[in-house]
Amino acid sequence: MRPARPRCSTYGAFFADEHGHDRTITTFFLLALGDLAGDFGWLAARVASGALDPRISRRGDWTGLVEAAALIAGRRLHGKAVLDVA
């Protein structure tokens, strides 16, 4: 099987201007770091104290999946959707 052909963007495709917002692509590979408990603990503490806002726009139980997905697909949800699984 041939490897996938790399995708390319034109120069400036991720620049902001008067017609667009800042754009960025960030990649990371966490599995190589090993134990992330301390990092997630630090992050959770910042969210709990209010020092960091995760920008959750919608929170509900799992039965709201279809509605939440429709809002995201329709670009009507500005932030994250969190679904609680019981």
Please tell me the overall pLDDT: 82
Q: Total helix count?
A: 2
Termini separation: 42 Å
Structural class: alpha+beta
Q: How much of the polypeptide forms β-strand, as a percent range?
A: 5-15%
How many E-type strands? Answer: 2
Let me know the largest β-sheet: 2 strands, parallel
Radius of gyration: 18 Å
Helix content: 25-40%
User: What is the H-and-E element order?
Assistant: HEHE
Can I get a quick summary?
The chain is an alpha+beta fold. The protein has helices at residues 37-49, 65-73, and strands spanning 56-61, 80-84. A two-stranded parallel ribbon has the order 1-2.
Features:
86 residues, 2 helices, two-stranded parallel ribbon, alpha+beta, 26% helix
Show the helix and strand layout.
Elements: H1 37-49, E1 56-61, H2 65-73, E2 80-84
Parallel strand pairs: 1-2
Structural account:
By secondary structure, the chain is an alpha+beta fold. It has a domain of 55 residues. Strands 1-2 form a two-stranded parallel ribbon. Strand 1, helix 2 and strand 2 form a beta-alpha-beta unit. It starts with 36 loop residues before the first helix and ends with a strand.
